[in-house]
Design brief:
By secondary structure, the protein is an alpha+beta fold. Helices cover 42% and strands 11% of the residues. The chain is built from 32 helices and 19 strands. Strands 1, 2, 3, 4, 5, 7, 11 and 13 form an eight-stranded antiparallel beta sheet that branches. Strands 6, 8, 9, 10 and 12 form a five-stranded antiparallel beta sheet that branches. A hairpin with a 2-residue loop joins strand 8 and strand 9. The N terminus is likely disordered.
Length: 900
């Protein structure tokens, strides 16, 4: 996350530390109520203001009174009127960094002071140290931030922009009617200083980019349309007996060697008859009831009647495990043989290189559990990929959700999956390599068993068919090449197809003057293509590469004459805010009728849109960018430290953050819940991670907490704590910056260049606690002012390790999570932090949330000119009860959004 450089002041009326000193005295819910009662926004009173609440002016007074005397004493002998080393004079620099001409020179001063390069060591008479150096650095940092803000005011940012990569993908999905990935080839956007990817500052277009979008649009169109007759599906019908034969064929040599060794030991012991029985096992199978060798653990094939079977150990080389499709093969008949997958294991099926490129792959797994116990479950996850050589493999999750297995060993049931083959990572040697050679073109389907118990999954049969189409031609094809009585007349039919598509893509009607250039384009393309469809698709790709599709409509410039331009622009902004996509027909119809800007109609549409499944896009995208959740992807957890860690936990961590926000939104819950609440939204895996009992299953649900300050809200969710670590140890600095930057919208001053790092080779440093190391680091003049604002917020989280688990000790020593804020308020760990936020910082958090979501909704950074409107929105929110859904409505019905 790029740290914003807009400095705001902390607004606080501190409670005395004695109120927080004793944990037993702290009632977070009571403090929450008290904090709300003290809200200045709630009472509608003017706030204590800082320089951002009034006209931004240069602090010349402090410069003259404090800064210049320090520079005069330490710098002017070398950089003054008598001598100017490097032709650089400090005494003539304009102290107004906001409007003066010398800001670049002041940046140089800032750099040399923070790097401690000045005064030079060979000038023993000058000692710019301690408080003096810190004072100059701090003043310069503040003035540089003001200068950036003034620059933003002087160069206001328009909200006119193209769609982001995410918006473009969703827009194509909604237009083409298929949930495919269409934007993988686009580079991710540069995020704004506020952390959002939809900032208009970075979303302009070049001529080359329009060509790229034409290619992407054409690729998408070809993906959802078809040519020729319906392909006949191929089918794999796989029985456990088939897998047993594969096991016998591929493992018999190794097994014979193992059994011979065992038989030889028995013979030496004089047990000749037992030795003979062992040697027969390579033919009739191992007695799995009694044999404890490594070959019989994990996935295996079992005969329920005899208790004998074979281990199943897939290997990619020479395609020895490849299975060929055989749609003529009848469905497997009843048998006592089962493929067995213990919990946490997976069964790999080598499907060779026979799967088609397009269409769905339908997978039916008939299975049951060997034991049914209360509060235990088994589920199946499908993965798709393979291994082309010893050093190359690929595997991706093929299904969004795991499916529960409810059948039993005696009465198995069928679990069915649908997988879009075009959306899977395919083997690059699929159509060029030869089975059995290296690199192999084989593709592998993996059936993974998830369970919270010790149960085994017993598979009765597997059927895999592809390509599967629910209808022919597919609906996505029919939506483009629409039904018409004029299909035999190519030119007339082309006009109908092009007009229908353009009006859907551009969300408006086209007149003949607008349609004519598109038809002429088709006429130019037609002689170059053998097929009519290909020529039409080129025109449709041009429509998708036009500014009218790629840019978010703002008003008259993007709509036809005599249409309600303001309402149409509002429809686009509203849809891109809440759905990350183009508006639907209902929204467009209201806009065309001029009704959307009516407040009652608009509020009804907000409610409709937020209850639509497409609102999940907004929830996920906003939450992840607001809180910087993508940082979790870059954390690699040390498995030597966290021996029980599994990748599934990281996925659940990300989901918890999003699902919690969705829960608050669904119930119009208070945004103050994000600071602390008496509930979580978790599943069994996270419940165990948090030490919460009696939560079972993979699905997320709301869980009530009883007087648990360690959890509740977002601040103590393991994902946010873990992403601000290095995967091995906690990182108070990261956590502190994140807290100021993302939660309180109060970022620290810009970090000095070349900040001295903590020397971990120093024995004295190694003996220090983390908190002591941070205090030692703050002794550097260049670091003091920044860290005084950052460190306390991060230290308050020190009871949480790198995986977000609560702890009282580290390396056998009690953890000291107490810290003193820049305003001298003392925090006692996470409880003190939550208490302080609830009692004193509700208004600041409210304004931070309003700022963040408004910047996201508008697609631009906010400035001083937006300040009064933001404050009014904050007052409305507090007075309406702090509801998250209310906040969204307040933003949308504000003049900032309506007139953006």
């Amino acid at each position: 996350m790029i740290f914003r450089k807009i400095q705001t002041c902390l607004i606080c009326v501190a409670l005395s530390f004695s109120a927080f000193a004793n944990d037993s005295l702290v009632d977070l819910e009571k403090l929450r109520s008290q904090g709300r009662e003290r809200s200045e926004l709630l009472r509608g009173k003017a706030k204590k203001i800082n320089y951002q609440d009034k006209e931004i002016v240069a602090d010349i007074h402090t410069f003259k009174k404090k800064i210049y005397p320090i520079l005069q004493e330490n710098c002017l002998d070398c950089h003054g009127p008598k001598k100017s080393k490097g032709r650089f004079r400090v005494d003539t620099l304009d102290a107004d960094l906001l409007k003066g001409k010398d800001i670049n020179d002041w940046l140089e001063v800032f750099d040399v002071l923070t790097n401690q390069e000045m005064p030079p060591e060979d000038e023993p008479d000058y000692h710019l140290e301690g408080e003096d150096r810190s004072l100059v650095i701090n003043w310069l940092g503040e003035e540089m931030n003001k200068a950036k803000q003034v620059k933003r005011e002087d160069n206001p940012q328009s909200s006119f922009r193209r769609m982001t990569k995410i918006e473009y993908n969703y827009a194509l999905q909604d237009l083409l009617g298929v949930d495919f990935s269409f934007a993988d080839d686009l580079a991710p956007e540069t995020v704004s200083e506020d952390g959002f990817s939809n900032s208009s500052e970075h979303l302009k277009m070049t001529a080359m980019q329009f060509q790229t979008y034409h290619e992407l649009g054409l690729k998408a169109l070809k993906k959802v349309t078809i040519k020729g007759p319906q392909p006949k599906p191929m089918t794999y019908r796989i029985s456990p007996q088939d897998l047993m034969e594969l096991s016998q064929k591929n493992l018999s040599g190794r097994l014979k060697s193992q059994l011979k060794k065992k038989a030889d030991k028995l013979k030496k012991a004089g047990k000749n008859q037992e030795a003979e029985e062992v040697l027969k096992q390579d033919i009739i199978g191992i007695d799995l009831k009694n044999n404890k060798s490594d070959d019989t653990r994990g996935v295996h094939i079992l005969d329920l009647e005899t208790g004998r079977g074979w281990a199943y150990r897939y290997g990619y080389s020479r395609a020895r495990w490849a299975i060929k499709p055989d749609q003529e093969k009848p469905e497997a008949s009843s048998s006592s043989v089962r493929a067995v997958i213990p919990w946490a294991y997976d069964l790999k099926l080598d499907l060779g290189n026979f799967l088609p490129n397009q269409g769905n792959m339908r997978v039916k797994v008939r299975a049951g559990r060997d034991q049914i116990k209360d509060n235990e479950y088994s589920s199946i996850e499908l993965l798709f990929g393979g291994q082309t050589s010893n050093n190359a493999n690929f595997i991706t999750r093929a299904t969004e959700e795991n499916l529960l297995v409810k059948g039993t060993k005696e009465k198995p049931q069928t679990v069915q999956f649908e997988i879009a083959l075009s959306e899977m990572q395919r083997n690059p040697f699929l159509r060029t390599g030869v089975l059995g050679e290296t690199p192999t073109p084989s593709e592998v389907l993996t059936i993974k068993h998830h369970s919270n118990g010790q149960s085994q999954l017993l598979i009765d049969s597997i059927e895999i068919s592809a390509p599967i189409y629910e209808q022919w031609p597919p609906q996505s094809h029919q939506d483009i090449f629409i039904a018409s009585k004029d299909k035999s007349n190519e030119e007339q039919y082309a006009q109908e197809v092009i007009q229908n598509f353009a009006e859907k893509a551009w969300c408006r009607k086209l007149n003949q003057d607008e349609l004519r250039p598109l038809i002429n384009l088709y006429k130019g393309f037609r002689p170059r293509f053998k097929d009519f469809d290909d020529a039409v698709l080129e025109v449709l790709a041009t429509i998708l590469a036009s500014p009218e599709f790629l840019y978010i409509a703002q008003g008259e410039s993007m709509v036809a004459e005599n249409q309600k331009s303001n309402d149409l622009g509002l429809a686009h902004r509203l849809s891109h805010f809440l759905w990350k996509s183009r508006p639907d027909k209902h929204l467009i119809d209201l806009a065309r009728a001029g009704k959307l800007s009516d407040k009652a109609v608009l509020n009804h549409q907000i409610e409709r849109m937020l209850t639509d499944p497409k609102a999940d896009r907004f929830v996920k995208n906003f939450v992840e960018e607001w809180l910087g959740v993508e940082a979790l992807e870059n954390v690699i957890f040390d498995k030597k430290v966290f021996t029980s860690y599994r990748a599934e936990l990281k996925e659940d961590m990300k989901k918890e953050i999003v699902f919690y926000f969705a829960e608050v939104l669904k119930n119009n819950g208070s945004i103050i819940d994000f600071l602390h609440s008496d509930y979580l939204v978790i599943n069994e895996r996270l419940a165990k991670h948090y030490g919460i009992e009696n939560i079972y299953g993979e699905e997320f649900r709301r869980v009530k907490l009883n007087n648990n300050y360690q959890r509740g809200g977002l601040l103590t969710s393991s994902g946010l704590l873990a992403m601000n670590s290095n995967g091995k140890e906690s990182n108070p600095l990261k956590r502190g910056i994140w807290m100021l930057e993302n939660v309180l919208h109060d970022p620290p001053p810009p970090a000095p260049p070349n900040v001295p790092e903590v020397d971990l080779t120093d024995p004295k440093i190694l003996q220090m606690t983390l908190k002591e190391r941070m205090e030692d680091h703050r002794n550097h003049d260049a670091c003091r002012s920044c860290h005084a604002k950052i460190d306390p917020w991060g230290i308050a989280f020190e009871n949480y390790d790198a995986l977000g688990q609560f702890r009282d000790k580290q390396k056998g020593k009690p953890i000291d999570a107490s810290a003193t804020l820049f305003n001298k308020h003392q925090l006692d760990g996470i409880k003190g932090l939550k208490a302080y936020l609830l009692s004193d910082r509700q208004d600041q958090f409210t304004e931070a949330m309003i700022y963040k979501m408004t910047a996201y909704a508008l697609g631009r950074s906010l400035s001083f000119n937006d300040k009064s409107e933001l404050e009014e929105m904050g007052r409305q929110l507090r007075q309406s009860g702090d509801g998250l859904k209310d906040m969204i409505s307040i933003i949308i019905t504000s003049q900032l959004f309506l007139n953006n």
